Amino acid sequence: MLKHVSKTFEVNGKSMPALESVDLEVAAGTFTALVGPSGCGKSTVLNMVAGLFAPSSGEVLYDGHVVTRLNHQVGYMTQKDTLLPWRTVRDNIALPLEMKRRDINQKDRGERVADMIELVGLKGFGEHFPAQLSGGMRKRVQLARMLVYRPETLLMDEPFAALDAQMRTVMHGELMRLTELQRATVIFVTHDLAEAITLADKVAVFTGRPGRIKLQRDIPIARPRDPFKVRFDDAVAGIQEELWDQLREELQ
Ligand SMILES: Nc1ncnc2c1ncn2[C@@H]1O[C@H](COP(=O)(O)OP(=O)(O)OP(=O)(O)O)[C@@H](O)[C@H]1O
Q1: 17 and 50 both lie in a single domain
Q2: Reported pTM
Q3: Does the N terminus or the C terminus of the chain have fewer Cβ atoms within 10 A?
């Protein structure tokens, strides 16, 4: 939860306000999308929830406690492809377990990784290297690497921006299936309103820099959702227009 959070960066001796008095409540097990113009501080919100840096004022709370150091309850997936090219799919997915869960023995670790490979639809590709995979498959590996550690909360920063529209829609289905299975809480940053509405229980629209939350909108579309069909849902056009009107003002 963010309570009156502001963040100012010092760049070359100059103060650069990035966020101003942001209040955001994210209920456990829900999916929240953050949308807003470039540079309005969306990634900064994720970085503070992850404990990478502290707010300048206000509080970032996780499970009722102020986040003061690296938050190990969260998994983080960025737009950038961060797979290690010298490691196989299997060894890339195993990485967070090797680093963070030394309590899990090698046999259980191997089983968890194998289950995860199957769950994200990459059976038979465990011994492939990232360079031998398509863009969509690499995203699946990144998704598996984040989920294998079973974090309670997933922070996702435009994770599918580099994919073509069809593959992105396929990944939306996969993400919803997997997060519902693990009952994960998700905070998802995107520029794409349609993506936000397809995935989220709640969309927060930010103003331009310094970012404030302009509007929070519940998305009352029943789950499970079929990402190929959501766009034809009667409610969606109205919600999209309402949110787009708010966002457009900030882009101008
Ligand atoms: N570590 C940092 N040091 C200095 N300035 C930073 C740092 N991180 C972010 N900023 C600044 O804070 C502002 C918000 O950046 P942020 O990356 O959070 O925006 P964003 O909404 O995620 O943008 P985009 O949609 O373009 O990714 C920007 O002006 C950026 O230059």
Answers
A1: yes
A2: 0.92
A3: C
